[in-house]
Design brief:
With 167 residues, this protein is of the alpha+beta class. It has helices at 19-26, 29-34, 43-54, 56-61, 106-121, 136-144, and strands at 9-13, 65-70, 76-83, 91-97, 127-132, 148-153, 162-166. The protein has a domain at 9-124: Aminopeptidase, CATH 3.40.630. The protein is built from 6 helices and 7 strands. The protein has a 7-stranded mixed beta sheet. The longest helix is centred in the last third of the chain and has 16 residues, at 106-121. The chain is globular.
Length: 167
């Protein structure tokens, strides 16, 4: 089943060769502030993160986080996709973009495409999203794609309060 694309973006599975990009993304200010430090500080650690956490999801679940590239210049700009977390009952949509590519509608474009892909192609009846309660940009984006806030929650083993959105 082909991955979605949008007028401006391609989405594809991550490969180990994307470790330099992932290193930059995981250490970007927005990631650190709203998602959290993953203690990935070298390209070798980023490669292990890809091969140990992101890439196995494709064969295990049939979906995962995808690399988002811009069609006009093939720039690697972010990630967006679906993830099955042990701590959530439903599949979760997630996304993150490098600072130079925020505020340009790319995240909205990618999440709409992934949400549609999950519902139409993967036949998911319910998709959720979690976001830090003070991440106003993420909250606005989730509402723009039709998600509704259901509750506040804290994931097991964590201390940060999150909103759970669903569609």
């Amino acid at each position: 089943m082909p991955l979605p694309e949008t007028p401006r973006l391609f989405l594809r599975e991550f490969t180990p060769e994307d470790s330099s990009f992932l290193l930059e993304l995981l250490n970007s200010p927005g990631w650190l502030q709203y998602i959290g430090d993953r203690n990935v500080h070298t390209t070798e650690e980023a490669s292990k993160y890809l091969t140990g956490r992101l890439i196995p999801s494709y064969s295990q679940y049939g979906f995962g986080f995808y690399l988002v590239t811009r069609k006009e210049d093939e720039a690697k700009i972010g990630m967006c996709g679906l993830v099955k977390r042990a701590s959530l009952e439903d599949v979760d949509i997630g996304y993150a973009f490098l600072p130079d590519y925020t505020g340009k509608g790319y995240a909205l474009e990618a999440t709409k495409a992934i949400l549609n892909y999950g519902q139409r192609d993967l036949k998911m009846e319910r998709i959720v999203a979690i976001t830090n309660i003070d991440n106003e940009r993420s909250i606005r984006l989730l509402e723009k794609i039709g998600m509704k806030c259901e509750k506040k929650m804290i994931l097991p083993g964590e201390t940060v309060e999150l909103f759970l959105y669903a569609v």
